[in-house]
Design goal:
alpha/beta, 7-stranded mixed β-sheet, 16 helices, 45% helix, globular
Amino acid sequence: MAEYRKLYMQLYDYYKNLIENGLLAEGSRLPSIRRCADERGVSRTTVEQAYMCLCDDGYILPKSQSGYYVSKRGKQIKKYELSQKKDGNESEILYDFASSGVDSESFDLNIWQRYVKSALRQTERLLFYGEPQGEADLRNEIAKYVRETRNCVCDGDSIVIGAGVQTLLNILCPLIGKKTVSFDDLSYKQGTAVFRDHGFKVISDREKGEVLYVSPSYATKWGDTMSVSERFSLTEYAREKGKLIIEDDYGSEFRYFNRPTPSLQGLDGGENTVYLGTFSKLLLPSIRISFMILSPHILTEYKKHGEVYNQTVSKSEQIALCSYIRDGHLASQIRKSRKLYIQKSAQLADMLTENLGERIKIIKNNSPLYVRCSFSGISTEEFCKRAKKVGISVIPAAFSENSAEIAFSVSSVGSEKLSGAVKMLKKSVINGE
């Protein structure tokens, strides 16, 4: 498994460097998957995984019946990365409170490795290509999981598995039959880019959108949740107006209460909603396994064309995840992660209050992944500027001249680093020393 990942990441790095250094210009066509596999002496699955990662990171774009082409974002990404590098006025990021990564303490990698090794011993099953829609036993386990935890209306047959949400959106877009999509959050560049690439008009006005892309469990970057009444209203509105809902349910498991708010897909009965879920936050970002639940009419369209889509998730990882869920490890992983993030959020909130006193106000938040607060006597813009200068990245929650409203993501900063971060905030950001 380690060697397989090493091979596709080597191939990913190879093309990434060519693109960033201008040796593959915008619009250049990459070798076909078959040709690349033959030239490099690797499997087609390895090439597909490398190409999908390049797609997810914006370096290349897939074109139906044509291949993969270098996007203009290659130069943009390189320019951005260069602008973020340390210069005379800026520091490298020491405390990343803006990241959506995963705390290494939250995941027992040894357990996962055991399941991967067990999957690799299923020699007979690994001799054949996987099902384009995803392994049936995994789809059935996912269906059972989302029925029990997210009240979804589905079975394994209505689920499609893919390596990341972007990959699934590239499958979904040609099946929709509509051409205007509204996003509540237009800053989700990876999502909006896919729809634009497929000829959609991307807007922020729900009334004018034929497709409504929403994230009700994370309506804001700091974890605000859409209420049950709002969810009922949205599903009813979409049904009356003939609009399709795409529900991106990323991170719904991480709430202060044990059971998440019901999904839109479940409230809608699955008739007019496509549900997107991912295991990247629950497990590790590098385990790129996501899934979507198709509504009946879109599932019918998918069945007409589904066989032309190659499965982008390795068969061994699908087998491993199926057993991992079936044996109850996913449920225990969620409990463990939630407990860790609740403890870290409480720890950070206490430290901020203790060190900053009257200048800080903790704002109630739905997600234990974030601590949201306001600081008096400094603007949001100035707070972020000072924080970045000393190597602290944060999330601006609201902009004001008289106070700063900031959210801190605790998912990527270890517990042992919180004290140092707060002391630096007090000295360099709040007091301006």
